[in-house]
Amino acid sequence: MSERPNGAVEFEVDGRKQRVADDPETPLLWVLRDRLGIVSPKYGCGMGVCGACTLLEGDRTVRSCTLPLRLAAGRSFTTLEGLAPKALHPVQRAWLETDVSQCGYCQGGMILEAVALLARSPQPTDEEIDTGLYGVLCRCGTYARVKRAVRRAAEIAAVERAQERSTERSGS
Ligand code: FES
Ligand code: FES
Questions:
Q1: For the chain, N or C: smaller number of CB within 10 Å?
Q2: Which of 107, 50, 123, 111 has the alpha carbon at shortest distance from 84?
Q3: Mean pLDDT of the chain
Q4: What integer is the mean pLDDT of 48-70?
Q5: CATH number of this structure's domain 90-171
Q6: Which numbered atom of ligand 1 lies nearest the CA of 50?
């Protein structure tokens, strides 16, 4: 996957290879929404400060509104749509249990930031949660419920890891 001589840029989204020929300076957010029909990343500020356009890349997040198409070459991103194709991710389950969402506009960014945080720190402290999700703005003020949901997601994920270990032991 790379930038091709004819200007087409190759990258991966939600496990699918994409090849897009467009102005290399076009923000990836527009490519996702208008060319590829992936609409969970939202437009908020267009300046990298609100988090509505967040994508997951490994255990980090990126703001797709400020990422030009040319810099997406060879990279692999996950959107909310592709986060857990078979069953809900522990973070999504915790979000539902905690009834976090209000209007929902910021929530894709919140959830992907939470997934990234838990990948880096499976049992985050309150400070780590505050720092990890600091970059996503919520006009509906869901911050307290977000924090509860991240703690709950950490519990759910820990139980799942223990169950997996026990299944592996009994199968070996
Ligand atoms: S729209 Fe990208 S950070 Fe606000
Ligand atoms: S739930 Fe409305 S902006 Fe966050």
A1: C
A2: 111
A3: 95
A4: 98
A5: 1.10.150.120
A6: 4
Comparing CA positions, the residue from 81, 82, 48 lying closest to residue 62 is 48
Nearest CA to ligand 2 atom 4: 138
State which of 30, 33, 39, 45 you would mutate to test the pocket of ligand 1, scoring each by most atoms of that ligand within 8 A of its C-beta.
45
Q: What is the pLDDT of residue 1?
A: 47
Give dist(CA 56, CA 36) in Å, integer.
Answer: 17
Domain boundaries, the chain: 8-82, 90-171
Topology annotation, domain 8-82: Ubiquitin-like (UB roll) (3.10.20)
pLDDT in tens, 17-36: 999 999 999 999 999 999 99
Q: What are phi and psi of 12, to 5 degrees?
A: -125, 135
